[in-house]
Amino acid sequence: MRNVIYRLFSLIVIAGFVSCVNEVKEIPQAGNPVLEVENTFTNVHFGDLLPFNVSVSDDVSLSTLTAKLYFGEEKVSQTLIRTPNNGKYSGHIKVPFLKDIPDGTATLEFVLLNTTMKNVVKTFEVPVSRAKYPYLMLVTANSTYSMLPTGKANEYAVSEPFPSTDLPAYIKTPTLDDKGVEISFGWESGAITQGSKKAIPFVSKTGGIYTVSFNTKTYEAGPFFEILLNGQKMNMLDKENFSIDVDLKQKQEVKIEGLDDLAEWWIDVDYFHTKSAGVYEFVPIDGKYRITANLKLKYFKIEVLDGNNPAKLKADGTGAVWIIGQKIGKPSVAALEVGWDTSKPLCMAPMGEKKFQITLVAGKTVNADEINFKFFHQKGWGGEFKSETLTTESDIIFIGKGSAINGRDNGNLGIVSGKQLEANATYVFTIDVSAGIDKAVLKVEKK
Asked: What are the pLDDT digits (tens) for 79-124?
């Protein structure tokens, strides 16, 4: 009997709750929101902080006014203002400054909402154009130069006897009117970026008088140092590093242009066989690779990619193997030791048949009498080879089983006590995972 009463009570409560929910949904809209926008939106430029003034009223309480700006169907900016009382309100909405966007007509929409969710909407077509500035400012650490229109659409330039061929600087615009704002252009993630003041690494091949240019629509600028790989322009990361992601085939010819001192560069024999200065044969298997040219150290860092990301060692033994640790580095230990820095791992060259190779010269790219590095499944911490998954028959290199057991952390390589690598001799370290990534074999061969 109690169960029956309880069930009936539950049904009554549920029915009452559903009824309340229905009542909430059925609250009627009321009032008559009135919106008057006082502005005429003319002479609007990308980057403007566009002001507006409105008058609002209703016979019930108002809630909010929302201004929305659309480029085509895409909403690119929005401003919300609380409007608790009838009267006048003012605000502004940002008109984005975007690369490559052509002049056109934007849609500006105002939505006035009262507390019963009744609203009124007003829209305006707003012509928006890229400003024609009388000048731009090129700002260096010590000076500011005026960049004047060149006559080409949206292009500005300055020619001066700059103090150096290296000219780190950012660019900024003047403000044209009371709705205009100063817009800066700096260097972020290897490209000129609006809103940044980080120095753009302008570089001229010649000293004395040279020209710095910039296009406010395309962001094309110069002068920059250019390096071409098989005719493709490498991307400038900063004034010392250029990078490109490229598909390469084994034994394919690779041609580097734009570096006059290539005969002085250190060339990684695991990846490039030198045919002549600037012309190389690609050594590893077909795949996608990231090649980074370091102008300061004069070497090419090469990494295996999977799509647009550094490759990982896969369960089937394909992919990449990485090295992190001490007493190893390219182009030399002295110039750039890897250490335990996960931004510096060396990528072993994939040679096919699930074998990965790195060639080292004792006393140069690897220490001759002491080493302490290990092999990883990825560019950073995570999967790694340990003594349980990696073996070797080398009589000079051993694999750590733990500091208390043989003086090395598990998986770290060491040189056998009483021995050392022969100074200036070349050693090829090969990881073979053809029997499985948990049955890897390390081979160390002196050439």
From this structure: 999 999 999 999 999 999 999 999 999 999 999 999 999 999 999 9
pLDDT tens for residues 154-172? Answer: 999 999 999 999 999 999 9
Do 348 and 443 belong to one domain? yes
Looking at 113, 129, 145, which one is the last position of a domain? Answer: 129
Label the pairing between strands 349-352 and 426-432.
unpaired
* Domain of 346, in residue numbers: 317-447
Residue with tokens 């290990």: 374
* Nearest CA among 406, 415, 447, 409 for reference residue 430: 447
pTM for this predicted structure: 0.72
Task: Show Cβ contacts of residue 245 under 8 Å, excluding neighbours closer than 6 positions.
Answer: 288, 289, 290, 305, 308
Q: What integer is the mean pLDDT of 10-38?
A: 66
> Which among 194, 222, 250 is the end of a domain?
222
Residues 306 and 391 in one domain: no
pLDDT band, residue 12 (cuts 50/70/90): very low
Residue with tokens 């609250």: 27
Same domain, 204 and 242: no
With 0-12 / 13-18 / 19 or more C-beta atoms within 10 angstroms meaning exposed / middle / buried, residue 360 is buried
Residue 404 tokens, joined: 């208390």
What is the distance in angstroms between the CA of the first residue and the CA of the last residue of the chain? Answer: 93
| Residues 427 and 444 sit within 8 Å (Cβ to Cβ) | yes
Enclosing H/E stretch for 9: helix 2-25
What Rg, from alpha-carbon coordinates, does the chain have? 33
| Residue located via tokens 């074998």 | 355
